[in-house]
Design goal:
Layout (H helix, E strand, L loop, with lengths): L1 E5 L4 H16 L3 E6 L3 H9 L3 E4 L4 H5 L9 H20 L4 E4 L3 H14 L2 E6 L27 H26 L8 H6 L4 E2 L17 E2 L13 H8 L5 E4 L9 H14 L4 E4 L14 E4 L4 H4 L5 E4 L3 H10 L3 E3 L6 H11 L2 E3 L7 H11 L2 H11 L6 H15 L5
Parallel strand pairs: 1-2, 1-4, 2-3, 4-5, 5-6, 6-7, 8-9, 8-11, 9-10, 11-12, 12-13
Length: about 400
């Protein structure tokens, strides 16, 4: 069996596809991954022996403003749709299936490539909020706000169809016409398919029923990580009480890095703790030369998180799941898209604190940490850790093997 996996986004979008690729290879499949050309993604895939097919522009350069994507949202979407159609088509060859996630235009391009090739296609949501449901609101696209007086989620999702068709309908259908495919009236349902996959843990990110769709929920796609921690980090961890980890992943955070770093360090010190700072795409760095602060770049979270007192982060699905599996209390400072959802879920489960607002101050972060470091929350986090599944990628791989073996096609 040959499979092409397609994604466009940050590390949180690439890592799950790497996990699925590994599990598919264990079942004898040949796998290629279409993903952004960023060096860190290529290295991560190479570490597990998976071939990267570069597609689209660098995500890091876009997010950090090094090289913004020019043009209107429709022009940018058109380039991404065409680019991913071409990349997936070239990578697929005589593939049996295409599995896609990431930015909507790139999934649309992958969907059209699979349709043109006549192979199975599956869309994967990495968070429940990407799928229509009366239990949560849809994502609001910039420049297309929903009416303030509409609060019914069912109505909002109906309005969302119109927004998606307005923003992406013309782009998707114009591209489909150029490659000889018929027009579609509802681009959201077409791209998501009638039976999408949901790669979230049933405890952390449950799918509440009844809902507008009935996805296949496999559990989170977690790539086992056996990389050792750097020796100097281990020495720091062993030199005193468990520190607090702070990292905001791919989020630039919108404030000068010196301000964010200063507030973070002050907040952790106010709780009498040492700190491990992850540079991330915000490029955080120490504010002084004190020995209570250690800075890391790329690090094995699965090895590190069980050894820290709390994890302060942006609320990405991958970091949220890693901290939950470690049984370590969390403080989430959500910024965009699905991050407010994960912050709410962590708070609802009692395994962490949702920071009020996207910009932490020394005072607000210290207050949140004070709660997270308490014995009750730590006990609850440890209890929930044992319920978080680690077999999601294996479940999804087996499901895909069964679908391809049965010769089923997307609805």
């Amino acid at each position: 069996m040959r499979v092409v996996l397609s994604t466009y986004g940050s590390r949180g979008d690439v890592e799950p596809m790497a996990a699925l690729a590994v599990r598919l290879r264990e079942r004898g499949a040949e796998v290629r991954v279409c993903a952004p050309p960023d060096e860190e993604f290529a290295k991560r895939l190479a570490d597990v022996g998976v071939e990267l097919v570069p597609a689209g522009p660098s995500v890091r350069e876009l997010v950090t403003g090094v090289r913004p994507m020019a043009g209107s949202i429709q022009e940018r979407a058109a380039r991404l749709t065409a680019g991913y159609f071409e990349a997936v088509s070239a990578a697929a060859g005589d593939a049996d299936a295409v599995v896609a996630t990431g930015l909507f235009p790139t999934v649309a391009g992958a969907r059209s490539a699979a349709e043109k090739l006549g192979v199975h296609f599956a869309y994967v949501a990495l968070q429940p909020t990407m799928l229509p449901s009366p239990h949560h609101r849809p994502y609001t696209y910039p420049g297309h706000p929903f009416p303030e007086d509409v609060t019914d989620n069912r109505v909002l999702w109906e309005l969302h169809v119109g927004v998606m068709n307005e923003v992406f309908g013309g782009v998707v259908n114009e591209h489909r016409a150029t490659v000889g495919l018929p027009r579609v009236d509802d681009v959201r349902t077409h791209v998501n398919t009638d039976r999408p996959w949901l790669a979230t843990d049933p405890v952390l990110g449950p799918w509440e029923r009844p809902a507008g769709v009935d996805p296949v929920q496999s559990g989170a796609w977690i790539l086992p990580d056996d990389r050792p921690l750097p020796a100097d980090l281990v020495a720091f961890l062993e030199a005193g009480e468990a520190p607090v980890y702070v990292g905001f992943g791919s989020m630039p955070m919108g404030e000068p890095k010196e301000t964010i770093a200063g507030d973070v360090v002050a907040a952790v010190r106010a709780q009498g703790r040492r700190i491990v700072v992850a540079r991330g795409w915000a490029d955080l760095a120490p504010i002084d030369g004190a020995d209570d602060c250690f800075v890391v770049g790329e690090v094995n979270q699965q090895a590190l998180f069980p050894r820290v007192a709390a994890v302060v982060h942006h609320g990405g699905a991958g970091t949220t799941t890693a901290a939950a599996r470690a049984g370590t209390p969390q403080v989430l400072v959500p910024q965009v898209v699905d991050q407010p959802y994960w912050a709410a879920r962590v708070a609802a489960l009692g395994i962490g604190v949702a920071h009020d607002g996207p910009v932490p101050t020394a005072a607000s972060l210290s207050a949140a940490l004070g709660t997270a470091l308490g014995p009750e929350l730590r006990a609850r986090a440890a209890a929930v850790a044992g319920t978080v599944r680690a077999d999601g990628a294996a479940v999804a791989a087996e499901h895909l093997v069964e679908l391809v073996g049965a010769g089923r096609r997307p609805a």
